[in-house]
Amino acid sequence: MSLQKSYDLIVSTKLRRPPLSRDHLHRPQLLSRLDDGLHCTVNLISAPAGYGKSTLASCWIETCGLSYAWISLDRKDDDLRLFLLYFVSALRTISEQACPETMSMLGGLTLPPESFLTERLINEMDMIGVNYIVVLDDYQHIQNQRVHSLLSALLNAPPKTMHLVLISRRDPPLPLASLRAKGRMVETRAQNLRLGPEESIHFLKLMGHKPLDNDLAALLNDKTEGWVTGLRLAALSMTQRQDHEVLLRNLPTENSYLVDYVVAELVACHEPIIQECILKISILDRFCASLCEQICFPDGKSHEGKINSRDFLQKLKDSSLFITSLDDTDEWFKHHHLIQSILQRLLKRRYSSEQINCLHRVASTWFANQGLFEEALSYLMDIEDYDSAATLVADFRYDLMNREQWYHLDLWLRKFPFEFISRNVPLLLSKAWVYQRQARYSKLFELLGGLDGTGESGENDVKLDLALRSEVATLKSFFYFSTGQAERAEEAARFALANLPAHSSSIKGFSLILLALALQMRGKGLDSLKVIDAARNDNEQVNPVFRTMLLTAFCYLRWIGAELVELQAPAELLIETGTRDGLPETVDVGRFFCGIAHFEKNELDRAESYLLPVYRKPVQGELFVPSIVTYCQSSFALALTCQIKGKPEKAWEICETVLLYMLETGNVDLLELCRAFRAELALWQGRTDVAEKWCTGFAPEPLRPVYRFFAPELTFIKARIAGGKRQILEETDSLLVRMILFYQGLHNTRMAIHLRVVRSVVKNLLGDRKTTIQLLSEAIEMARHGCIMRPFLEFTDQLHEMVGEVVTSHPDNIHAERIQRAMRMEQRNISAAPVNTEEGSSPDAWVTTKPLSNREIEVLKSLQHGGRNKDIAKNLYISVETVKRHLSTIYRKLNVENRQQALRQARKYGIL
Questions:
Q1: How far apart are CA 585 and CA 582, in angstroms?
Q2: Residue 548's pLDDT is what?
Q3: CA atoms of 748 and 706, how far apart (whole Å)
Q4: What are the strands, taking DSSP E only, across 156-311?
Q5: Which contacts (CB < 8 Å, 24+ apart) does range 892-897 have?
Q6: Integer Cα distance of 44 and 897 in angstroms
Q7: What is the pLDDT of residue 617?
Q8: Residue 257: its pLDDT value, please?
Q9: Which residues of 206-243 are buried (b: 16+ CB within 10 A; e: fewer)?
Q10: Portion of the chain with pLDDT greater than 70, in percent
Q11: What is the largest CA-CA distance in the chain?
């Protein structure tokens, strides 16, 4: 068997059906029992160790003629992702491309919600075009409730072509009673597997044992109680002795003692060098000649030439006792689990703890040298040698990061006690990177707080080498950037880039993004572009992930600078590069930037075409969770696109789906962001109570940089505006002034545009027409180069007249005219309100008018109760002037001149 690729979590020998030994006892009645189970969903083979469960299943698979997938589970597979990796990999031995979407979602740092995952797995298993059997051997090792839940769901709605064989030493916590009651399960248990007297005699003959007289055969069967392993061990023991009757009468009657007794005797029959080797390799879950050489003869000498590792393995193979072949080439072997546990007990009696620990370290080194790091780490964890394990992780973690194999890194870290991680800086930094990729920023920044003084400067720097200090500096730069400390972010990023080791491409790429953004934040946009260009021309940096990070940096700069025309090309290149190099996260980032650029330009159909595939990924089981922020932000933009296109139910569904995902994955930081967006969407849909409730728990200050699509700060402002009280509007205006100054100071043109538009709405509501037009003129000029439209169109009702004045006073302002035309189109949209078609009203009549806002409908409802402007203002907590403006807008939209006409038209169109 060839060695695995580096960081492969799958040990391929575990996907092989155990071969049948030459002395295998064919048992037709049991095979027939399993054949009967083919008409059911499950064949359960449940019995204690050593009853021949796996051998029976292997024999049946060989004879039944169906395609099969076999998984030999062990204690290391008690993890939902690892279990699924083996499960899908086993299915791919039947159909090479089986379950592609399920496999794709296993590449992320965090799994999608289990409901999505299970549904996708079942659907894809149902698409395998042949009848097949899935064998889960040694299922008793699985304790994880998430695995049990997934398998229970699979059994509840099984693929029509699948038959499951469960082999376990005890009944698993699955819906067995339900399966049994519905006749969907056939059970084979210890009483079925026990050998009868005649079968025992036949089995001994197959082993080459001389026939026993009837009394001895009966005694042997009575002592072993038809237990296959006990019978085999007793027979092997008899080959070493002549006094069979004495031996059999001295055999313990309890199976566990029988195994201990016989194995000890069999080991003692070998010469000392063989005994030593047998005991030493008992620490190994699987082994080959090269590995045995290292374990048994670490000095490179095969005991003065008396035996070598291949001869040793051949002796064990010939004994039919100690090892089983795992492949067709007899390269890899394993012990029978019962034998291995006995040998390990004998090893502990003969060798000290430190000697045994040394064997584990030798095994770990061998596996690490073959690139099999999961197994290398497990041997160190078995002896709780966390220091050596930490060194192993430190040696190879950069490689994992460069390959975007974040789950592997997280899996390694979860093997350590948290107390140990907190004292080990390389592991602590690795944990920090996992938090960063998961967008768990509060945890990341809390962890960084414990690294004070270990960054780019500080009196404690001597405690860390330069590489670790540079890595801390990168994370500190991210913190400084996230909190608006541009100068410190630039300083830290430069320190990191100057001192990071050459092989840390992923961290270097991230540092370069931070440096470019920090320079842009300081108003050095040209310098940031030069930094990216210089890195692109660095031929030493050939890592594809590093190259895509440069494109990502370029996209962020164009987005923040509101240069949407220049954003399109690098975003498309991200899609092209990610597709070519097999980097799905990169593809998603490219789609995100293309989608939000089209959204801002009011090209909604094109925006939807880019954003929809990113949103659909968790639903289809394709989510690569390192791009979880991209997924969230893309979904937000898609929801607003649907809302504007007249699909409010779809918009709300998208919002709730993303929120549910964050609840299921437990990402607290992104959960709060999703709740903020739900408030934003609620405002669009007139659910002001939802937005106002969210506002009570949100603090807009201190202000932080905004460099993605959705900004909760803007939602807070818009929710305050919806209230309409003058005092609140004045307070909001003061906040907007501070925000505009803050984002201008960060040279964030996109936010500056949005804030000016929103402040123009506030000033308009406060009756300051001059400032309103001034702010609009500034915003339109800033948006001109990027053809930005949406911030203006969002407030068409409030600003269309003011935009008209800008066009009138600046007739050469092409972008203002473009916005004005778009606003006219907005006003001709079809109302989302239901149409009253009774009494001759024409549905088409409403097509040429602008739908009323929720606030305007509230004013209309107050009118039908005969309320005066003063009464309406009091009831709605708005000023009388605001009521008058609403009435003027209502009259215009309904093409009427007074209250009575407005009420008649509203009833005609089904608004009231």
A1: 9
A2: 86
A3: 8
A4: 162-168, 185-189
A5: 893/827, 893/849, 893/850, 893/851, 893/852, 893/856, 894/849, 895/849
A6: 80
A7: 59
A8: 53
A9: ebebeebeeebbebbbebbebbbbbbbbbbbbbeeeee
A10: 85
A11: 118
CA distances to 501, 504, 538, 544 from 541, in Å: 12, 10, 6, 9
Residue 532 has which token pair? 């990216």
Assign residue 369 a region (left: φ > 0; alpha: ψ between -120 and 50; beta: otherwise): alpha
The answer on pLDDT for 888 being more than 50 is yes
Sorted by sequence, the CB contacts under 8 Å of residue 727 that are 6+ apart come out as none
Q: Are strands 333-335 and 323-325 parallel, antiparallel or unpaired?
A: antiparallel
pLDDT in tens, 273-288: 888 888 999 999 999 9
- Residue tagged 């296993």 (tokens): 106
Residue count of the chain, please give it: 912
Rounded CA separation 585/608 (Å): 19
CA–CA distance, 176 with 411 (Å, rounded to integer): 32
| Residue 177: burial class (beta carbons within 10 Å; 0-12, 13-18, 19+) | exposed
Cα radius of gyration (the chain): 36
Question: How does pLDDT run across 215-241, given as a tens digit for each residue?
Answer: 666 666 666 666 777 777 766 666 655
pLDDT tens readout for residues 496-532: 999 998 888 889 989 999 999 999 999 998 899 888 8
What is the three-class DSSP state of 334?
Answer: strand
Which sign, positive or negative, has the C-alpha torsion 62, 64, 70, 75?
A: negative
pLDDT at 846: 37
pLDDT higher than threshold 60 for residue 411: yes
Tokens of 94: 């039947």
H/E run at residue 712: helix 712-723
pLDDT confidence of residue 73:
92
Burial annotation 503-519 (CB, 10 A radius, 16+ → b, else e): ebbbbbbbbbbbbbbbb
CA distance 521 to 22: 74
Which whole-number Å values give the CA distances from 320 to 24, 223, 241, in the listed order?
A: 11, 21, 17
Edge-to-edge strand ranges of the sheet holding 132-137: 67-72, 132-137, 162-168, 42-46, 185-189
Residue 721: strand, helix, or coil:
helix
Contacts of 501 (CB under 8 A, 6+ apart): 398, 467, 470
Q: Give long-range contacts, CB 8 A cutoff, 24+ apart: 883-888.
A: 883/859, 885/765, 886/855, 886/856, 886/859, 887/859
Task: Provide the pLDDT confidence category of residue 839 given band limits of 50, 70 and 90.
Answer: very low
pLDDT tens, residue by residue, 128-187: 989 999 999 999 999 999 999 999 999 998 998 999 999 998 899 999 999 998 999 999
- Collapsing DSSP to helix, strand or coil, 325 comes out as strand
What average pLDDT does the chain have?
83
Q: What is d(CA 710, CA 654) in angstroms, rounded to the nearest whole number?
A: 15
Q: Which residues of 756-794 are buried (b: 16+ CB within 10 A; e: fewer)?
A: bbbbbbbbbbbeeeebbbebbbbbbbbbbebbbbbbbbb
- Structure letter (DSSP) for residue 140: G
